[in-house]
Amino acid sequence: MVRQKRAERTRRSLLRAGAEVIAARGCEKASLSEILQRAGVTKGALYFHFPSKDALVRAVLEERAAVVPPDSGQPYAQDSIDFTHRAAHAGERDPLLRAETRMAAESLSGKDCPAAYREWSATFQGMLRRSAKAGETLPGTDPAESADTLAAAYLGTRLFWHATGQRPELTEMLARLWRHLLPGLVLPATLHRLDPHGGDVSVEAGSTDESSREPSETR
Amino acid sequence: MVRQKRAERTRRSLLRAGAEVIAARGCEKASLSEILQRAGVTKGALYFHFPSKDALVRAVLEERAAVVPPDSGQPYAQDSIDFTHRAAHAGERDPLLRAETRMAAESLSGKDCPAAYREWSATFQGMLRRSAKAGETLPGTDPAESADTLAAAYLGTRLFWHATGQRPELTEMLARLWRHLLPGLVLPATLHRLDPHGGDVSVEAGSTDESSREPSETR
Q1: Is the domain covering A69-191 a CATH 1.10.10.10 domain?
Q2: Which of A54, A97, A117, B98 is spaced 20 to 30 Å from B41 by Cα?
Q3: How far B12 CA sits from the closest chain A CA (Å)?
Q4: What value of ipTM does the predicted structure carry?
Q5: CB–CB contact B160 A146 (8 Å)
Q6: What does the pLDDT look like over A99-147, one tens digit per residue?
Q7: Domain residue ranges in chain B
Q8: Do B156 and A157 count as a contact with CB atoms less than 8 A apart?
Q9: Size of interface A-B (CB pairs under 8 A)
Q10: CATH numeric code, B2-61
Q11: Which residues of chain B neighbour A162 with C-beta distances below 8 Å?
């Protein structure tokens, strides 16, 4: 039992160190030796948890995707909005989210660097299915198609924000995106009950603490 | 006069070679010597036109932005839609557009590599101002804000498409994006006159011919 706890702690250290190094250097340049050093973990312990760097990178992405948004009750569409705002708020201090943005940016140039598009699409799809079931979405809405569209537009907005000097605030850029997207997604009766700025975006304590050292090269 | 023509031809060779090398290697790794070799141009001729690699990279982006969409008559909003489809069609064979996508992907990791976000936003803004003037857009639409939103969502869609295996066709992904965005952008009376798949996307002969050799590393 104690051993299991220790193994889980080691796994979390590796995920966190992996995310931090990827966020700072990019997926392609992230080295296993730097990750091991940051995590304070031996090579043997690493390979117990992850058979390859690839597997570790995948696990970092899946870790973020496993953060299930809260079910706040109707309208469900608000959950999707809130989730993007919460991720944006957390993004600057949560290494998992910073790693994900970095990987999205690297998606063309980084060989064998998976991007977070599929994970985000899956997250949105789950939320949209609940919305559709509750009769919030426009007739003919296909949750899978809409989820791809939302994932592409949402990650594009995060990249745009990073690339153009981070003005205005990301939360304002997200609100604009939702104002443009929602009328094509939900019924008017739902629309006027939604807040594009995020109804409840108080950021919960994430899976990682805030006392992290940053790798120096965090531009 | 002859000298001027020759200078213009050299400049175009450099722009084209620059775009091809950037598209293949990324902006950061694109080397001036490879660009010179592809263009068949001397270093002296390069510096006559572009004082630095930076200046050449900027010029490649501006070259694309200078492609003004045709004024097809009302509804002007259709011009924006058609333009994105035309760019998507041309993207796979036009080195300027491939370079731009590559730079958008590199926007976080590539030091000093400008991304095309601002250029696309400016292009959309011009089109949206015409739409707004013609009374096509929803009351309260701010062309500058909407242009940023469209540029982010559009480039995000191109990256998503590249990163997720290019299925479905880019033109279908763009149509879905427009179907989601247009109800939040234009008046219902305009909306039902628009074709999200692009009304007229026959690709004109671009600024570059199609007989280009590709650098080998074009993943």
Answers
A1: no
A2: B98
A3: 26
A4: 0.78
A5: no
A6: 877 777 676 665 666 667 787 888 889 889 999 999 999 999 999 999 9
A7: 2-61, 67-191
A8: yes
A9: 146
A10: 1.10.10.60
A11: 107-108
